[in-house]
Write a structure and sequence with these properties.
single chain, 72 residues, 1 helix
């Protein structure tokens, strides 16, 4: 079968199918990259929050010690 004998509609449909698959692959790759960046940002935020919690706990302990020393 000669490809030049195919109707124009099939050629157009084939071109759109190829474009769709190509754009889908690009979108999936960009989504994966964006997800990796977001996960890295969440990890950094979690580490920072842990440091803040430790600092606040230390401050609370120091304040309680100061209050106890003033009562004595």
């Amino acid at each position: 079968m000669d490809l030049t004998q195919l109707p124009v509609e099939l050629w157009v449909q084939g071109v759109f199918c190829v474009l769709f698959v190509w754009l889908l692959r690009i979108q999936m790759a960009e989504s994966k990259e964006r997800e990796n960046k977001l996960m890295a940002q969440i990890e950094r935020q979690n580490e920072t929050q842990d440091k803040i919690v430790c600092s606040l706990e230390r401050l609370e302990k120091d304040i309680n010690e100061i209050k106890n020393n003033e009562r004595e």
